[in-house]
């Protein structure tokens, strides 16, 4: 039996190259974490042992495919630390292939798994696609054991705020996340459940309600008066109430419920706000509005 180092708090930041790890680490540093970037997995236990002898400060470590040979050790180490009672939060920053390709093109930085002799044009494009696919396969086990954040549609300020939210909740019980989004911008890949509320009456077609959001009283009153909205909300809440204890018993850290409408402004926002209020007794509830947050933090 290993003797696990005990930290006040340990956050492992991992994920796809171009997924936003640098932004996340800056956010954690601003939040008071001691941050270490690109630590090989072979050194993790020794490093934590040294930290145990120190002040017990909050630590954030970024680990990814920049150390490809040690990557297979990471998922087993996460399991070992948790089994030994260490409060480990593993945050996996993901994005769809299109977003990753665009980010590498804009920054002109090479992918860590791409061959230097990849060439230009179509050849370079194919080489980048292949590197991203290889990276996904190498990180599959780590992703499975982590809280996933889909950064495809997130602005930098959004990502920093969402990371800070993740580390403010306790890590010893399940956190329920309600997230609104617009189907026209894609479904969040980090969602555990997705509910489509586009079948509900749409306040967008009322000129007075169009510029408002689901958090505004006139829109809330309009939707509350629609029987279909109450029925949909009741069925989603009933499903969550039935199965939430099972997910908590399965030692899940986070459960993300994504609710989408056409524009992510009215119906999905309203339902997220109402469901978050209903489940406030659960203890740890986070609210995200992907499209609205992007506008506010633009």
What are the SSEs and their pairings?
Layout: E1 10-15, H1 21-30, E2 34-37, H2 44-52, E3 59-62, H3 74-83, E4 88-94, H4 97-107, H5 121-138, H6 140-144, E5 147-150, H7 156-168, E6 175-182, E7 193-196, H8 217-224, H9 227-249, E8 254-261, H10 267-278, E9 285-289, H11 290-296
Parallel strand pairs: 1-3, 1-4, 2-3, 4-5, 6-8, 6-9, 7-8
Helix pairs in contact: 1-7
Give the full name of the CATH homologous superfamily of the largest domain.
P-loop containing nucleotide triphosphate hydrolases
Q: Give the CATH class of the largest domain.
A: Alpha Beta
Order of strands, widest sheet: 2-3-1-4-5
Give a quick account of the main beta sheet: strands, pairing sense, barrel closure: 5 strands, parallel
**What is the element string, with H for helices and E for strands?**
EHEHEHEHHHEHEEHHEHEH
Number of domains: 2
Radius of gyration, rounded? Answer: 21 Å
- Determine the CATH topology of the largest domain: Rossmann fold
Relative helix content? 40-55%
What's the short version?
By secondary structure, this protein is α/β, with parallel strands linked by helices.
Descriptors:
four-stranded parallel β-sheet, 298 residues, 17% strand, globular, 11 helices, alpha/beta, disordered N terminus, 42% helix, Rossmann fold
Structure overview:
The structure is a single chain. With 298 residues, the chain is α/β, with parallel strands linked by helices. It folds into two domains: 10-168, P-loop containing nucleotide triphosphate hydrolases (Rossmann fold, 3-Layer(aba) Sandwich), CATH 3.40.50; 175-296, no CATH class. It is 42% helix and 17% strand. It is built from eleven helices and nine strands. The model is unreliable at 1-7 (pLDDT under 50).
């Amino acid at each position: 039996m290993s003797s696990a180092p005990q930290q006040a708090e340990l956050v492992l930041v991992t994920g796809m190259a171009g997924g936003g790890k640098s932004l996340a680490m800056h956010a954690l540093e601003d939040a008071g974490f001691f941050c270490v970037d690109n630590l090989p997995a072979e050194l993790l236990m020794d490093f934590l042992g040294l930290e145990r002898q120190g002040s017990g400060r909050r630590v954030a470590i970024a680990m990814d495919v920049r150390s490809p040979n040690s990557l297979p050790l990471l998922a087993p180490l996460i399991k070992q630390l948790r089994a030994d009672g260490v409060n480990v939060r593993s945050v996996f920053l993901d994005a769809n292939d299109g977003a990753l390709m665009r980010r590498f093109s804009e920054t002109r930085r090479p992918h860590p798994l791409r061959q230097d002799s990849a060439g230009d044009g179509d050849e370079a494009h194919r080489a980048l696609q292949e590197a991203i696919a290889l990276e996904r396969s190498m990180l599959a086990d780590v992703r499975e054991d982590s809280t996933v954040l889909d950064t495809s549609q997130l602005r930098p300020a959004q990502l920093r705020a969402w990371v800070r939210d993740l580390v403010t909740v306790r890590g010893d019980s399940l956190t329920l996340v309600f997230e609104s989004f617009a189907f026209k911008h894609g479904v969040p890949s980090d969602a555990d459940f997705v509910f489509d509320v586009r079948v509900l009456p749409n306040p967008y077609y009322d000129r007075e309600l169009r510029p408002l959001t689901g958090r505004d009283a006139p829109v809330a009153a309009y939707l509350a008066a629609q029987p279909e909205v109450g029925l949909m909300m009741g069925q989603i809440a009933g499903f969550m109430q039935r199965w939430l204890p099972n997910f908590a018993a399965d030692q899940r850290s986070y459960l993300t419920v994504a609710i989408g409408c056409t524009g992510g402004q009215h119906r999905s926002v309203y339902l997220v706000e109402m469901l978050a209020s209903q489940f406030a007794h659960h203890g740890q509830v986070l609210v995200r509005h992907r499209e609205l947050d992007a506008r506010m933090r633009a």
